[in-house]
TrEMBL record:
It is found in: Cytoplasm. Keywords: ATP-binding, Cytoplasm, Disulfide bond, Nucleotide-binding, RNA-binding, Transferase, tRNA processing, tRNA-binding. Catalyzes the 2-thiolation of uridine at the wobble position (U34) of tRNA, leading to the formation of s(2)U34. One of its GO terms (molecular function) is tRNA-uridine 2-sulfurtransferase activity. It comes from Cellulomonas bogoriensis 69B4 = DSM 16987. It catalyses: S-sulfanyl-L-cysteinyl-[protein] + uridine(34) in tRNA + AH2 + ATP = 2-thiouridine(34) in tRNA + L-cysteinyl-[protein] + A + AMP + diphosphate + H(+). This is tRNA-specific 2-thiouridylase MnmA. PANTHER family: MITOCHONDRIAL TRNA-SPECIFIC 2-THIOURIDYLASE 1, TRNA 5-METHYLAMINOMETHYL-2-THIOURIDYLATE -METHYLTRANSFERASE. The gene is mnmA. It holds the Pfam family tRNA_Me_trans_C. The record marks H126, Q341 as: Interaction with tRNA.
Amino acid sequence: MRVLAALSGGVDSAVAAARAVDAGHDVVGVHMALSRSRAEFRTGSRGCCSIEDAGDARRAADVLGIPYYVWDLSERFEETVVADFLSEYQAGRTPNPCVRCNEHIKFEALMDKALALGFDAVCTGHYAQVRIAADGTRSLHRSADLAKDQSYVLAVMGRERLARSMFPLGDVRTKDEVRGEAATRGLSVSAKPDSYDICFVADGDTRGFLRDRLGERPGPVVDVEGRVVGEHQGAYGFTVGQRKGLGLARPADDGRPRYVVDVSAATNTVVVGPAELLTVRAVHGQDAVWLADDGLDGRPFDCHAQLRAHGAPVPAIVTRTGGPGVRVEVPAGVRGVAAGQSVVLYDEDRVLGQATITGTDR
């Protein structure tokens, strides 16, 4: 097959591309330039898509003996991922930009261009597995290395794009195995630190980034009785479940810690309360994307739900609602669920589908 390998400049994508070459595919490497000021993007091990990363990707392609190109997707990235990030926080929700990047950039813009150029598949260094049944049906599964599993942020791709995706690192047991393989292959990125946090927030100060882009909007922090207990400089800087950085001038009457239990963009108000108010029993989601047919007949079905990128899956009962919606009941309850995040549904390690959280029931 003709395979387009997305080379981020990190060790994972380099080894994934190497494995695609070993499998006998005709591989071409592409680095996605996502920042309008790439020279400023990497701070220590944070960030990605900098000039440094483009150079590392080129050197990896040279070692592998494959053609290498840079595709400028910075405008698309700004108009989709960054714009969505800002608008979601401004609306009082907490987005996951990695999900949006996979949806709009890696498995839409990149894949659409690859297919238009005659490639059969796109290969990335994500930690997840694609399994093919006897009838040719493909399914998405968790990585063998559960600590690195990225199926949560990949669930948004849908069936058509899954059919054109390759994740050669899905069977890897540890990141050390990947680094060792990279060193053996002579790839200079073998010891390169992982990028982490939000790639376009180079210094890791999300609240500062939002303040610079959205401006200060002072407003009240209130308790559940409506009493003002503090002041904020922008409700967009808070998320449900947050405890640190609240700046409360008035302690709780019982002396217990308080958490953000609601963020109202309409009134520019942050509501704080006791920990028990964070527990929800049901989650509502919209814009559902399905990779399996479970519940297609409209009847509720049992599965496990993951509500944060690094959260633990919990037993759930799922019902498809009108349109692309779902209701996910969590009988045991789950804490700190924020609107804007993804709820991803699993049958053991198989991804069934995902939806964007729009609300919860306590």
